[in-house]
Structures are given as C-alpha cells and as structure tokens.
Amino acid sequence: MERAETSRSKDDSRVRAKLVPTDSAFPSIKIESCEALICSATVNSSDDKHQWCEITWKNDSDIVTLRNLSSNPIIVDGELIEETVVIKSGSEITSGPDKEGYLTYVFEPLPSRGNDKKRIEISLDVEHAKCSICLNIWHDVVTVAPCLHNFCNGCFSEWLRRSSTRSKEGISCPQCRSVVHSVGRNHFLHNLEEAILQKFSSLKRSGEEINLLNKYASIKSNIVLGMPKYPSRKRPHTFSDNGGIEVELPCFQCGSELGGFRCNGTTTHLSCHGCGAKMPSRPDIGVPQNCLGCSRTFCGAYWTTQGLDAQQFNVICPEETFKPVFERTILRIPDSVHRNNRYEKDVTERCIERTGKTLQVLISDWITKFGNKEIDRTNLQLNHPEMITPRTYLCN
C-alpha cells in the first residue's frame, strides 16, 4: 500500500486525487495509488505527521472508501466516523473528532489523463438494460438477430428450448415476435451489465436466482437458428384395383365408400392443417371442417363422424385437436400461454390460486359468461368472435 504525504509539487500527471486543506497554510495531500495511507499533519498547531486514515478505490471504479486509522473518531461530511465510510468528490474530512483544532481536508478526485482516450462517461437509463422476459438487469446477456434485442442467457435459453418443441414457423423474439435468425453472447453489453450492478447494488439478484439462470443457460457461442422443416407424417391413401396395382388416392373416401359417401371425379378436397391429410369438402352435412377462430382446416371431427378411429388410423388427427369449446378440459395452464413467457405464466397461476377455485372451474365460469355475452369480445384475437358459442368447434 502506497503512503500519501503532503506535497507542494505542481506535477499532477500521476495523481488520482487530492486532499486539499481548508487552511491554506498547509500543503495538499496527493494520492497516486488506488490504495493509499494518508500521512499528514492532523492539528493546526503542529506540523508533525501521522498516519490517520486509509483511502481506497474499489476495483478501480469510482467508489472510494475511507477507513479511520486513528484512535479517535474523525468527521466526514458532518458525521463522526469510527471505522469506514464511502466518500465522494467534495467530501469534507476532519482529521479528529472536533473541527476546532483539527485540520479539515476536501477530497478532490482528478480525471485520469492517461485513460482519457480509452474511457468515456455515458448516460444510460437502467430500464434499457433489462431483460424483457424476467424484467431484471441482464445476466450473461445475449443478443438476437436481426432485431438486436437483448436477454439473459438463461431466460432466452429456456424460451428457445420451449419454442423449439412447439413452433414449426421458426423461433420468435420474446420482445417483438419477429423471427430470430441467430443468437450469441454480447461481451460489450456484459461489461455494461457488470458496471450497472456495481453502481446500483440494490439491483443485484440473489445467489439462488443467479444459480438458476446459470443452470438454464445453454448459449455458449453464436448459434444460427434455421427454419426447421417438418415432413408430413401423411402418406396418400392407397387403393388396390383388381389387377393388384396400388393407386395413390387423396383420402379414405376416394375409391371406396365410407360412412355412406364416396368421392367422385369432381369432389373438392381439403388439406388438414394439423396433419396434412386430405378429406372431401362437405359443407352441407353439418360437420365443421374449419376452425371458426382461425379459419384453418382440421380433419378430426369429420373422420370421427365417418366412423374412423384416430387411434387405429394414426394418419389422421385425434379428436382432441378440434372439438366444441364446452367439451374441453384444462387441468393446467399450457406452457405456450403468454407466448411461452414462464414468468407471466407464474403470475397467472398465483392469481388463480388466490381465487380458491380450480383452473377448470374458472374456465367453465368463463365459458358460461362468454355464451351469455357477458364478456367483451372486441379484444379477442379470433376470427368471427361474435359468432362463437360454447358449442362452436375450435382447434387447440
């Protein structure tokens, strides 16, 4: 640890800070090291020097700590200090317990001239350094492209894991919902993240939260996220003619009668959005083939009325994919709710617990109110919301 003493030299090229006495009869104390023992006169009646305090910079930052080394308290900014205190530019430090008879110094940090070209101060709103998934300051920040939004490594890794198992249309950005092409760790913003937490220690998370994020984190380097292609699990229905030759047919009702119906040469066919299977378009039989909420085609309800069992014929959609609203049973909130945001999902679950009702009871109450038109439908993200009733077939 370097010893800092009084000096009348005008060379300040290596000086980090000064203690300037309020009594001009005494020289300033120049501090050149980030850890300095202050050795100077302490009373205005004597020039004898004593080691009476220690001044240190924390991790080469702007946080400066003073530690009292004398046997008596000292005064810093009007407060009696027996041990340590954080000081700032302009802090008044009296070398004893009373301003009368003891010297008072003003702490004046100087700009580091050697680093002027390498370090600049910028103004930043910490709200702009928060992850939009967990709403905390980034931890091990990653950046997605091309939208350039930033998230905690653990938060986005969990989002990526959940989205990869559900989405066939690519991974979307949790903030703007645009398709993500790549993601990687951002070392520049990581330094910014650390500087913010050093400046505002109240924003730091608990060790338990940090350990959980580190456990989830899977992004170690830049990752390119392609658009996955899912081949259809459907194969065209085959029909064997009398000559033993197999002919590929669009659906089960092409070439043979099923449920009292057989396709002819003019029959229009629909492709199921869920599995890719073909089925004849039959709007006149009263069996829904399109979801009223999204207008997409689903085959489960149609083939069930025609006598096909989805468990036996695994090339068609199960009945669960397309059924009336009132027949649905929901035992837990799906992971995909709130666009896969697990934090918003947790908040929703806690709100449900406070009602004292099960999720299924709340859903049933909601369906009843929906059917009685007690719920505003204008904000529902559905096609034809005014036409939907509890008996309407919707996809899941």
TrEMBL record:
<dbReference type="Pfam" id="PF17979">
    <property type="entry name" value="zf-CRD"/>
</dbReference>
<dbReference type="GO" id="GO:0004842">
    <property type="term" value="F:ubiquitin-protein transferase activity"/>
</dbReference>
<keyword id="KW-0862">Zinc</keyword>
<dbReference type="Pfam" id="PF00097">
    <property type="entry name" value="zf-C3HC4"/>
</dbReference>
<dbReference type="InterPro" id="IPR018957">
    <property type="entry name" value="Znf_C3HC4_RING-type"/>
</dbReference>
<keyword id="KW-0539">Nucleus</keyword>
<feature type="domain" description="RING-type">
    <location>
        <begin position="131"/>
        <end position="177"/>
    </location>
</feature>
<keyword id="KW-0132">Cell division</keyword>
<keyword id="KW-0863">Zinc-finger</keyword>
<keyword id="KW-0498">Mitosis</keyword>
<dbReference type="InterPro" id="IPR052256">
    <property type="entry name" value="E3_ubiquitin-ligase_CHFR"/>
</dbReference>
<keyword id="KW-0833">Ubl conjugation pathway</keyword>
<keyword id="KW-0808">Transferase</keyword>
<dbReference type="InterPro" id="IPR008984">
    <property type="entry name" value="SMAD_FHA_dom_sf"/>
</dbReference>
<dbReference type="GO" id="GO:0051301">
    <property type="term" value="P:cell division"/>
</dbReference>
<dbReference type="GO" id="GO:0008270">
    <property type="term" value="F:zinc ion binding"/>
</dbReference>
<keyword id="KW-0131">Cell cycle</keyword>
<dbReference type="GO" id="GO:0005634">
    <property type="term" value="C:nucleus"/>
</dbReference>
<keyword id="KW-0479">Metal-binding</keyword>
<dbReference type="InterPro" id="IPR013083">
    <property type="entry name" value="Znf_RING/FYVE/PHD"/>
</dbReference>
<dbReference type="GO" id="GO:0006511">
    <property type="term" value="P:ubiquitin-dependent protein catabolic process"/>
</dbReference>
<protein>
    <recommendedName>
        <fullName>RING-type domain-containing protein</fullName>
    </recommendedName>
</protein>
<dbReference type="InterPro" id="IPR001841">
    <property type="entry name" value="Znf_RING"/>
</dbReference>
<dbReference type="InterPro" id="IPR040909">
    <property type="entry name" value="CHFR_Znf-CRD"/>
</dbReference>
<dbReference type="GO" id="GO:0016567">
    <property type="term" value="P:protein ubiquitination"/>
</dbReference>
